[in-house]
Amino acid sequence: MRVSVIGLCGDELAAFNAEPSWGLIEVMAAVGSVVDFAQHRARLFFGKAELTEDTTLADIGAAEGSQLTLVKSFALRIASASHDGIAKLWSATSGECLGTLAGHEGRVMGVALSPDGRLVATSSCDGTARVWSTATGECLRVLRCHDGVVFSAAFSPEGHELLTASGDCTARVHRTASFELVRTLKGHRSVVFSAVFSPDGQQVLSASFDRTAKLWDMATGSCVRTLEGHASQVYAASFAPDGRRAATAGADGTVRVWDLARGECERMLAGQSKAAFSAVFSPDGMQVLAASDGGTVGLWDAATGERLRQVE
């Protein structure tokens, strides 16, 4: 029987003769070069029925002249940064190295994937941030907007902006379409080690060696709150999924949970023997996971401060 495969816009991508007993593997083999399996995940549908490795064309009701719809999304990938001056892209499913991003002239301090998976940003001791194509590994732009080490890079939730944090005591916002600088967040008195967008993209949270974290309004670039309480450098700050709380990790060995509306510390999560380098909320916002310089990872209840797990 003759079947065809169309994209989400209705354009025909392939047409071929198939057997009713064919499953996903056979149909994908017939589709051929339409899908780059190293870069994409692919799903096929006939109406609402999905063709899988456990079903056949006959099972989902496909017959002579049927059109299957191909849905593509970028494959799950992991990006890594290294002190050897390169970053790498990896398949999260197979562990295979998909690409090496070389070009920095110093240690790569941070790396971030855009929400749509098309771009990767790197930050480096060479004072630059770079934006790369995940499909080709090509460096699309070198951003020379800071006067010091660029410690981190992060994309906004919609991928329209790129945020960088630097040793020049600032965080800066760039448009990803044009790479133009649109906002400079000034106010910290020392190194800004990391900066992230809120879940709605309307605010930015920065962590600094001046022992504070700051909450910024994206529209105006003004500082809305300064979170004070750590006894030493603050290495990282992150938003809760609802954007109403933040977690900070500091060199004083503590992780703190903050109410952002009031700018007050709700909970201090102690127990790390050495500096806490990162802290993130669970997807439901109920727990906080933190990593420390002592080689331990701790899990806390965000509401009570109780330590639930520790892995060494």
Automatic annotation (TrEMBL):
SUPFAM superfamilies with a match to the protein in the record: Ubiquitin-like (SSF54236), WD40 repeat-like (SSF50978)
WD repeat residues: 101-142, 143-184, 185-226, 227-268, 269-310
PROSITE patterns: WD_REPEATS_1, WD_REPEATS_2, WD_REPEATS_REGION
Keywords: Repeat, WD repeat
Record bears the keyword Repeat: yes
InterPro entries named in the record: Ubiquitin-like_domsf (IPR029071), WD40/YVTN_repeat-like_dom_sf (IPR015943), WD40_PAC1 (IPR020472), WD40_repeat_CS (IPR019775), WD40_repeat_dom_sf (IPR036322), WD40_rpt (IPR001680)
Gene3D superfamilies for the chain: YVTN repeat-like/Quinoprotein amine dehydrogenase
Protein name: Ubiquitin-like domain-containing protein
Domain of life: Eukaryota
Organism per entry: Zooxanthella nutricula
